[in-house]
Amino acid sequence: MKHPDTVILLFAKAPVTGKVNTRLISDIGVQAATQLQDDLIHQRLSMLTQANLCAVHLLCSPDVRQDDYFMRCKQQYPIALLSQSGTDLGMRMLNGIKQALQQYKYCIVIGTDAPALGEVLIEKAIERLKKGLETVFVPAEDGGYVLVGLQKPYKFLFQDITWGSAEVMQQSRNKLNKNGISFYELDTCWDIDRVEDYQRYLDFI
User: Fold this and answer.
1) Which of 150, 171, 189, 195 has the fewest Cβ atoms within 10 angstroms?
2) Three-class secondary structure of residue 12 per DSSP
3) How far apart are alpha carbons 138 and 128 in whole angstroms?
4) Before 78, cis peptide (omega within 30)?
5) Running DSSP on this structure, what letter comes out for residue 189?
6) Model confidence over 74-105: pLDDT tens digits?
7) pTM listed for this prediction
């Protein structure tokens, strides 16, 4: 692999009926929302492992034992499985990053809901970190972000953030500026939150 000192953490919810893509259920139905989650997880794992940029760890919710789903993923792809831990998204991300940076020098965090986030952009993020930047982002069109890369687990970056809102990226910028931490933003990417995004995804694939 190209970057043995780096790890990608892919945060994923198991495709449990009625528990995933809940904002889309009223528009596309529970079955399509569940299938979407399964498809996105496999699409991300396939892209990441074929790219062979670095190690890939699947951060599983609710845990690695959920319906044996994640174990089947591990049988299919060369990945490691870890359970998510924490009371909210920020703490789950922070705990995963802390653990990863004990073993690796650089850490990239992504989710499953940005299918247009490809290996080229991910490698650009890794390269920015290796050039000395402390933090790198791929902002989302809706005001959040679909990738964050770090060399250190900055606790403040994951506290008091309005997760799921249009303020996430700006709140993150403000915190980094306040603490004097350098950061870089790569090209904006879209993710799947609304029925319009789902239609875009269907056109994309």
Assistant:
1) 195
2) strand
3) 12
4) no
5) B
6) 999 999 999 999 999 999 999 999 999 999 99
7) 0.96
